[in-house]
User: Fold ERAP1-like C-terminal domain-containing protein from Rotaria magnacalcarata.
Amino acid sequence: MSRTLVGRETAWTFYKNNFQKLVSIYTLESRRLGIAIHSIARSFENESYLEEMNQLFELYPNAGAGVSTRKQAINQVNMNIEWIKTREQNLLNALETISS
Assistant:
C-alpha cells in the first residue's frame, strides 16, 4: 500500500495517528512495528516528512525492537532528500532536452 503516493500518505497518516494503539496491539518488542516505519518512509523525499518523523519519534522515544529501523528510516529519508537536491536539475534538463 505504501508504494503509491496515495497509499504512502494513507499508511503514514494511519501509523502516526494510531501509534499508541499499534504499540498496545503489537508491543514495542515486535519487529513488525519497526519494519512498518521503514517500509512506509522509504520513499519520503522532503523535509516535511522528515520533520513529522522526528516529531513522532520525539513524542514516542522508546522504540523497543524498532530502534535500528527508525534510524534506517531517517537515514533513508535523508538520502532521498539529498538525492533530489543533487539530481533534480539534471533530470529536469534531460527531460527538457527529450521533449524539445
